[in-house]
């Protein structure tokens, strides 16, 4: 899988392959620079490379080369991790960094958009689950419909902003990887900060309320609007987990959704 691109782009292997559910990655050297060769096995990953090119290194990793399923990316070599920060006393600062990175990605560009996917299409899996299961799913679906019918501050979106998708690029700062190429209200991109299943404290009500204040201030979002996006996004995540039979993740996502819904009712 990697061999044709190693030859074509004059790359030198610089580590062990990394396998994910949607791509195959290989650390490489390109013109003496650390880079990451990524070969997509999922169409969303292919579309994400187009968006990375569109950002042109502003808020996201540089794209050095792109052809078909393969993309050659600037590689993060910094030692810092937002997940480690969030779990070791720097949760607030990690959230602020995520917000600032998202804001850079949302900034207008004077060039055509790369054929993004509307949020209305992204949310199409929530309503059938809401109709079938009801309960919190139905509550989240109602909130999502209201948001999607009257969007504010529409822009290009990353679609998956979380602690593992914003990396330390040392002198270049914190930059995003792995976008989903969405288009819709910018508030959507801040909801996933509350929904990273790798962070054990996301279901802690005290932590939730603290991060709500921090993110709403840093992102310049009304707390109510942010809560609505958290509920909508968490319901959608739970629907996806339910379809994949990931029972623990379903309950985690629904717990976050209920936290948001309870705050909305307060």
UniProtKB/TrEMBL annotation:
Regions crossing the membrane: none
Pfam families in UniProt: APH_6_hur
KW Kinase (keyword) present: yes
GO biological process terms, semicolon-separated: secondary metabolic process
Key word Transferase present: yes
Keywords: Kinase, Transferase
InterPro entries from the UniProt entry: Kinase-like_dom_sf (IPR011009), NH2Glyco/OHUrea_AB-resist_kin (IPR006748)
An annotated Gene Ontology molecular function: kinase activity
Domain of life: Bacteria
UniProt signal peptide: none
UniProt protein name: 3'-kinase
Taxonomic classification: Bacteria, Pseudomonadati, Pseudomonadota, Alphaproteobacteria, Hyphomicrobiales
